[in-house]
From TrEMBL:
<keyword id="KW-0378">Hydrolase</keyword>
<keyword id="KW-0547">Nucleotide-binding</keyword>
<dbReference type="GO" id="GO:0005525">
    <property type="term" value="F:GTP binding"/>
</dbReference>
<protein>
    <submittedName>
        <fullName>Unannotated protein</fullName>
    </submittedName>
</protein>
<keyword id="KW-0342">GTP-binding</keyword>
<dbReference type="InterPro" id="IPR052040">
    <property type="entry name" value="GTPase/Isobutyryl-CoA_mutase"/>
</dbReference>
<dbReference type="Pfam" id="PF03308">
    <property type="entry name" value="MeaB"/>
</dbReference>
<dbReference type="InterPro" id="IPR027417">
    <property type="entry name" value="P-loop_NTPase"/>
</dbReference>
<keyword id="KW-0143">Chaperone</keyword>
<dbReference type="GO" id="GO:0016787">
    <property type="term" value="F:hydrolase activity"/>
</dbReference>
Length: 183
């Protein structure tokens, strides 16, 4: 999907810590997880599964209290993770977004990650996985659309009534409807 933009680098920002971020990470070559000191973000990152998807951690607002504790929390969670010994260990980069401090170091780390996944074949593996998932999603959407089309009319009403009256089980009713599309 992002390949259609035609740019070498595409940045996607999400609104917080949750399932959406995990899904977006599946579509990215490099995932940067940003946490703030003293907000409990590092614990939230662990709960939301972001520890597993982060390629780089950023502690933004690094001029505030709690940076050392946040770094320690992230380091401990990484130590406890099941990363293979030879795997990329997500670096932790402090930044101050309001001044730009640390942004150059962050960019360097993102480029290092890109070089690493390119040299290990991980970049190709991730992209192949994404393309397979995209294809699967397209097929699923089209099947869902086809299901909506065939689940109408008199035959649908009869089968639905049969299931409601318990004279027909749902699986048999579904099989009957699928015969209409040759499945």
């Amino acid at each position: 999907m992002l390949d259609a933009i035609g740019r070498l680098w595409v940045l996607v920002e999400t609104v917080g810590v949750g399932q959406v971020e995990v899904e977006i990470a599946g579509k990215a070559d490099t995932t940067v997880v940003v946490v703030n000191p003293g907000w409990g973000d590092s614990v939230q990152a662990n709960k939301a599964g972001l520890m597993e998807i982060a390629d780089v951690f950023v502690i933004n607002k690094a001029d505030r209290k709690g940076v050392d504790e946040t770094r320690r929390d992230l380091e401990q969670m990484l130590d406890l993770s099941d990363l293979p010994h030879e795997a990329w260990r997500p670096p932790i980069v402090p930044t101050i977004g309001s001044t730009g401090e640390g942004v150059e170091a962050l960019w360097d780390v993102v480029q290092q990650h890109r070089a690493h996944i390119s040299s290990t074949g991980e970049l190709d593996r991730r992209r192949r996985f994404r393309l397979r998932e995209e294809l699967r999603e397209i097929v699923a959407r089209r099947l869902e659309q086809k299901a909506r089309e065939i689940c109408t009319g008199d035959r649908w009403d009869q089968l639905q009534d049969g299931v409601i009256e318990r004279s027909l089980d749902p699986w048999s009713a579904a099989d009957e409807m699928l015969k209409a599309v040759g499945a």
